[in-house]
Amino acid sequence: MTAFKLYRYSKSIIIKILLVNVFFSLQSCLAAILLIKANPKPEVEHDEIKGITRFKKTLFYNFSEERNSSFIKNEQLIYKETNGFKQEYKFYDYLQLENRLKSIENTIYFIVDGRNYPIEIHSQSKESLTEVDKEEEDLILADSSTTSVIRDYEIRNYSLISIQYTLEENLIRDIANAEDVKIRYYAPPEMITLELSNLKLKAFRALAEAEYEYNSLSQ
Fold first, then answer.
1. Which domain covers residue 11, as residue numbers?
2. How far apart are CA 201 and CA 109, in angstroms?
3. For the chain, what percent of residues have pLDDT higher than 90?
4. Looking at the domain assignment, is residue 143 inside a domain?
């Protein structure tokens, strides 16, 4: 084998090794990200000013049951606050909807194993937001420098509707022990139905047991 062929062979082996290392590194990173997202346990923080312990969990909903829905996504923040004597579950939902939907009706519904639980919204606000998706291309100029040129773009307008409400502890436990749970919002003229996956139900179970587990660990 000539020196040139040996060089090419060695270079090929090195490239293959590097590609394998990159593949496994990406695979490990992806597994770590999925593990973080799949963890149903809430975060915990202590508020010494108000004298409460706060457990918090964020859930994401990306699909509604309705076809051709104006729903885009929902980010749901859940806070369980306890002072050792009483517990309160606060919910903050941030719904992204197509811009033609302007508000959510003041009553939403948790559908737990076929039973409807009406929940009154405490507060609601709306923002109109704009996103611009750009398709860019790098061009090489005469002096060998590069510049970016926008080839195409799309402007998207949508509504961000923020609502706040609370759930009773009994309902939280019913949800935690249920097999089928959905949330129904009415955004005239549409209705939006979001289903809780098994992972989300596990998150509710973890919230329901959070104080007990924390007290056991802290003793």
1. 1-38
2. 16
3. 53
4. no
Is the distance from CB of 96 to CB of 108 less than 8 angstroms? no
Q: What is the domain-level CATH number for residue 53?
A: 2.60.40
Q: How many domains does the chain have?
A: 2
Q: Is 26 left (phi over 0), alpha (psi -120 to 50) or beta?
A: alpha
16 and 94 share one domain: no
Please give the angle made by the CA atoms of 117, 196 and 64, to the nearest 5 degrees. Answer: 95
Same domain, 50 and 123: yes
pLDDT for residue 86? 85
Whether 1 is in a domain gets the answer yes
pTM confidence score: 0.72
Residues 166 and 209 in one domain: yes
Extract the residue ranges of the chain whose pLDDT is less than 70. Answer: 1-38, 152, 212-219
CA–CA distance, 59 with 32 (Å, rounded to integer):
18
148: Cα within 13 Å, side-chain hemisphere? 5
What is the pLDDT at residue 184? 98
The H or E element containing residue 78 is: strand 71-82
